[in-house]
């Protein structure tokens, strides 16, 4: 009943008041707008999941090489209707790449290959893209995958942070390989020049990886020639010597880091042939084998450099003009090889003459070009000695001057020209000397000058003395002085012996001192060495004061540097025997004078009688 009553009241209310209709319509409109907005935003929220607009593209090929660059582009679109805040794209660059650049540097944070592009607000329906470039690492193993894992978008709506993962299917496979084809083998002869017995050679194996991948487990082997000996402590890089080979096992040959493996060998010193000394080296990497070889030719040489020439005076002692010189040449091969053909060249030196047919006949010939002898000889074995000889004469034209005969011989061998050490011999010159003994009857009536000459020539066998007795009986010093220029100087004597005074002694005035001085002075000015004989002993009336004249002689001699010959003392030993008449020399006396003069004069002569 109550309900019925209320319902009736309600119907009455509607019937009576129409305002509720407007209220109802407004209410319905409000509700409908709320529902509409709610559903609109529910259908079109901010959204980055539409794969048509949100994806990663890249210029990745199926295969790439170390060092290649890859560009990735990340595309995004807010397919919703509402703005998002703090939109960011985060990703990690692919393994085995390095970041190079991006066009979006201003919003990019790069932390060790973790990239974050902080884009910021993205409105509804707004599109965008960021990019970056990476480079594939070099070296890199073949088959390595370069893979971009995808990216994460993050953004905020109000207080909510949302994420979106974008997958990428961008994979490139690395194609790479080591390249060891630059493998080089060198032989270095340590002392340069040609390769000789006992030389040290260094073998250098230069390994370079010019590829784009490190080479693992490389084996290098170098095979020695049978003609060399290893120097074990010269092997580098822990190489091992075994069975005539040096072996290196190398874990890794990195690219662009050339490495040199080396060792040294000594060429055996007992080889007798000019061998080829070869080294073959191989480099093994996987199935690849690279082989290199190097050859050096051994050079052997004859060595005639210890050959010598000798000169001998055939009759011994001094060598005088006209004498024979024996020449001996000893050619020695101290080398490593037989000398097949060599030539001994012997110019006859100045001052000597070849004695015809005196030379060793084998291979000999005369050459006008060298004015000498040439021997063309063959086959001088290792260790062998060959002797050739000939004779020369010291030329007579050296008779006055003397001289030196010097040989300059040489040998032309397969190992070049060898100059033999030169040798010399002195040739003594003969002496030719003019001596004048001037004076009075002590010369004119005596043969002591002749005896003196004989004594000189007997004592000096290579000297020839022209000893002139220039004397007149009764002459005084003034007579000698008067005729000096015309009778003495004309001979150009090298020695002058003066014997005056005996006739000057006495009552007659003679001017002895002045005249004797003049003679000495003139003789000196000829360049002669001057000797003055003392006078006496005299046993003759009015000549008792002869010692005064000897004093004058001594004084003048001292003044002019002349030599006083004291014949007085020996003659005084036996005046009766040595003087015939109290003044003149007996035959025995002449001999005493001759020997006395000789003993003085010879003190002023050299070893072969030359004037000193
Ligand atoms: Ca050498
Ligand atoms: Ca001699
Ligand atoms: Ca003579």
Low-confidence stretches: none
Strand order of the largest sheet: 6-7-4-10-11
Please tally the β strands and state the result: 37
**Any idea what the CATH architecture of the largest domain is?**
3-Layer(aba) Sandwich
Instruction: Catalogue the ligands.
Output: calcium ion
Could you say which structural class the secondary elements and strand pairing correspond to?
Answer: alpha+beta
Radius of gyration: 64 Å
Give the number of domains.
Answer: 5
Helix content: 10-25%
User: Count of helices?
Assistant: 10
β-strand amount: 35-45%
| CATH uppermost class of the largest domain | Alpha Beta
Q: Report the oligomer.
A: single chain
CATH fourth-tier homologous superfamily of the largest domain: SGNH hydrolase
Structure description:
- The mean pLDDT is 94.
- The chain is built from 10 helices and 37 strands.
- 20% of the residues lie in helices and 40% in strands.
- The protein has a 5-stranded antiparallel β-sheet with strand order 6-7-4-10-11, with no helix packed on it.
- It is of the alpha+beta class.
- The protein is rod-shaped.
- The protein has 5 domains: 2-43; 55-174, Immunoglobulin-like (Sandwich), CATH 2.60.40; 184-297, Immunoglobulin-like; 308-427, Immunoglobulin-like (Sandwich); 431-604, Rossmann fold (3-Layer(aba) Sandwich).
- The chain binds calcium ion (CA) (3 copies).
- Residues 453, 457, 465-467 line the site of one calcium ion (CA).
- One calcium ion (CA) binds at residues 453, 457, 465-467.
